[in-house]
Amino acid sequence: MTVNHPRSGAPCKSVSPRGASMIMRKKKDEYNPKDTIPTVKHGGGNIILWGCFSEKGTGRLHRIEGRMDGAMYREILVNNLLPSVRALKMGRGWVFQHDNDPKHTARATKEWLRKKHLKVLEWPSQSPDLNPIENLWRELKVRIAQRQPRNLKDLEKVCMEEWAKIPAAVCANLVKTYRKQNIRRYCNIFEGL
C-alpha cells in the first residue's frame, strides 16, 4: 500500500494493492471534488467510437458524442479518415470499407466519397458483418479489460492509449486473413467439401 502523507491538513490518499483508492479526512472537512474519483454504477456504461486501420497500423480513434447522423459521419471522415490515410502513408491504391449502415449509404455520403475520389468496397446488403475492424474492436476490448477503467472519462483515455499501442503486425495480419477469406468466399471455394 502506498500512502501520500498529508501536508497542511490536506486529505490523505491511500491506494490498495488491488488499485482501490480511499480518501481519509477529518470529520469536520467536507468532501472536496478534487479528492474524489468519479465512479460508474450498475455495470458502467459505454462510449461509442469510430476508428480506422490499415495493414500499416491503426489510424485515428474518435469518440462519438450524441447521436450520429450522416452529416456527423461525413465530418468524422474528414477529420479522422483522411488524416489517418496521410499519417499511415497509404498512397492512392487503398480501398475504403464500411458497412451498409444508412449513414454510410446515404446519398450525401456517397456523393462526398465520390467527390473525394475514394474507392469504396461494395458490400452486399443483408450480409454478415465481415469487416476486419470487428476483430480489432475485440482486441481493444481485451486490452481495456486488463486496465479496468473506473469511469467513462477513464474508459475513453484507456481506449485512446490502447488503440495507439496495437502493433502494426496485428493490423497487417487482420488484413491478410481478410483477403484470404474473401477470395475463398467470392470464388465459391469451400474447404472440406
User: Mean of the pLDDT scores?
Assistant: 79
Question: Regarding CATH, which class?
Answer: Alpha Beta
Number of domains: 1
Shape: elongated
Number of strands: 5
**Radius of gyration, rounded?**
22 Å
Uncertain stretches: 1-19, 186-193
Number of helices: 6
Structural class assignment: alpha+beta
Largest β-sheet summary = 3 strands, antiparallel
Strand content: 5-15%
CATH architecture descriptor: 2-Layer Sandwich
CATH superfamily: Ribonuclease H-like superfamily/Ribonuclease H
Q: Determine the fraction of residues in helical runs and give it as a percent range.
A: 40-55%
How would you characterize this protein structure?
- This is Tc1-like transposase DDE domain-containing protein.
- The chain contains six helices and five strands; from the N terminus they run E-E-E-E-E-H-H-H-H-H-H.
- It is α+β, with helices and mostly antiparallel strands and 193 residues long.
- Strands 1-2-3 form a three-stranded antiparallel β-sheet, with no helix packed on it.
- Residues 1-19 and 186-193 have low confidence and may be disordered.
Q: Keywords, please?
A:
single chain, Tc1-like transposase DDE domain-containing protein, RNaseH_sf, elongated, nucleic acid binding, alpha+beta, 193 residues, three-stranded antiparallel beta sheet, 6 helices, disordered N terminus, Transposase_5, Nucleotidyltransferase, domain 5, Tc1-like_DDE_dom
